[in-house]
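During the practical work, I worked with a single protein chain and the tokens that describe its fold, as given directly below.
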Amino acid sequence: MKKLLLNDRVVLILILLNSITIVLQGQLNSGQLTQLITHFDTVFSILFMIEAYVKIRTYSFKGYISSNWNRMDLFLVVIATPAVFADLFSATDLSLSYFLAFRVLRVLKIVRFFKFVPNIDHLFQGVQNALKSSVVVFLGFFVYVFVIGILSNALFGEASAVHFGTPAQSFYTVFKLFTVEGWYEIPDSINPALTILSYGLIRLFFSLVVLTGGVLGLSLVNSIFVDSMLSDNNTELEKKIETLTMEVQRLIELQEK
């Protein structure tokens, strides 16, 4: 058991099988069969708990949590524990039926699959570096959404209460406009009689919003984010090339001497 649970391939197979059971739980309608699959899912949860225990005993707790992936594994095991107790014991009889709400969290165990994706650490590192480099751009985009949302709420709050009745609704509507999909339906739903703008100006306003935010704005954010990822990778490569160039130059100088 110890050797098996310390084998990443075996753990990956368990994760894949557990993913299948979770899918079957939502797919099958038979009560008894669904209950049986739920028990299988509980077995997988217990196996993951044993896995965490074995690894902690093997590597020590400090050594175990030194890995970010192990921290995530331990977190997923902890949040799945209440659901395990709810299945092993009758939550209703124990007046602990609120434990059943934790059952939905067992789906998060599938997140462990990312641990076994090739070069996933390199990808996450690139995304992390790109987020750091693009934070100003994201902040500027948020400010733009905020300004357009407040302006739209002031202009169309009464004319279209469904979309712009409150600032929160207005922010969400503006964000939907930036996705471009179906944006023309929103200005068509506004009653021009309830706003200071005519129907033509309303369409012009939303056309400009979609053009500046949806087309230009999102394209700019995407391009800067991708460029930040590539530039970070190129920077590391350039440093390696620079180091190699210096070493070659040193060898040439030693030969000349």
